[in-house]
């Protein structure tokens, strides 16, 4: 069932040493799941044996944060990569979080059928389905930098060449409806992700020069002719300068939905 190759859509690497996996490991439930935490806490009060599935849990820092919020719940982190799940298990152990398990799932190749299955599972016991995705074309840099604009467009082109949609966040409600979820049970939220100067090397932005110049995403950018290898080096350098700029800012919209059954 498991694979380290990933599916056709998921272009980023899945090893704990991959730059973006490191950056995901610094994410927190409070920040990333603010839209669904009130719903989760309400459910924890009313559902005696609450079960929470974190699908695409990655290295698991968010899963641990959610598990700590609902210590009486059984939490399961699912991912397609055994390697990243190993990192997630270590994270749970190091944090002393005991109500979380991690399992590998078969690839979810098609979004509507995946949502249909997640809705089927969530429906049991009157649960909720909470989903969040980025809307990559909404990117915004400060300071203005045409090289970074170009780099971001090259990344989006690589995703699209791999059959992925870069604007999934704005489609979540429509996909849920297509998957059979009743429109009136769906609540739509939005969030703006903000990356800013922190001065800390492990900060989210620090992963990006490597992400754009080496690894599977960078290879794909070159393969499809969106940029030359030399240009990738320039993207990385522009990104480094942005990271070091105390006034630097990157913003991106996310779509978030909650369906109640
Ligand atoms: C962008 S990371 C997010 C990790 C974490 N939820 C976070 O927000 O920091 C996406 C994760 O989903 C997993 N993933 C992507 N596509 C998948 C699929 N089709 N089936 C299962 N897991 C998938 C990847 O392995 C990766 O760990």
UniProtKB/TrEMBL annotation:
It comes from Baudoinia panamericana (strain UAMH 10762) (Angels' share fungus). CDD domains: AdoMet_MTases (cd02440). It comes from the Eukaryota. Residues 49-101 form the Methyltransferase domain. Pfam families: Methyltransf_31. This is Methyltransferase domain-containing protein. The lineage of its organism: Eukaryota, Fungi, Dikarya, Ascomycota, Pezizomycotina.
């Amino acid at each position: 069932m498991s694979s380290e190759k990933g599916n056709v859509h998921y272009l980023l690497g899945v090893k704990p040493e991959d730059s973006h996996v490191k950056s995901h490991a610094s994410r927190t439930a409070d920040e990333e799941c603010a839209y669904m935490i009130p719903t989760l806490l309400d459910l924890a009060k009313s559902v005696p044996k609450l079960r929470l599935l974190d699908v695409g849990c990655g290295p698991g820092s968010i899963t641990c944060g959610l598990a700590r919020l609902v210590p009486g719940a059984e939490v399961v982190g699912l991912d397609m990569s055994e390697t990243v799940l190993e990192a997630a298990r270590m994270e749970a152990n190091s944090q002393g979080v005991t109500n979380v398990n991690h399992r590998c799932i078969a690839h979810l190749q098609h979004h509507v059928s995946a949502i249909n299955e997640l809705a089927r599972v969530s429906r049991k016991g009157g649960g909720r389905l909470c989903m969040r995705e980025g809307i990559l074309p909404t990117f915004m840099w400060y300071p203005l930098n045409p090289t970074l604009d170009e780099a971001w467009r090259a990344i989006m082109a690589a995703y699209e060449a791999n059959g992925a949609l870069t604007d999934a966040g704005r489609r979540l409600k429509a996909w849920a409806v297509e998957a059979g979820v009743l429109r009136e049970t769906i609540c739509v939220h939005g969030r703006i992700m903000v990356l800013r100067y922190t001065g800390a090397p492990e900060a989210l932005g620090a992963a990006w020069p490597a992400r754009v110049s080496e690894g599977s995403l960078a290879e794909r950018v070159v393969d499809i002719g969106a940029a030359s290898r030399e240009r990738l080096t320039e993207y990385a350098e522009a990104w480094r300068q942005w990271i070091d700029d105390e006034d630097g800012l990157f913003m991106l919209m996310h779509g978030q939905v909650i369906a109640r059954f």
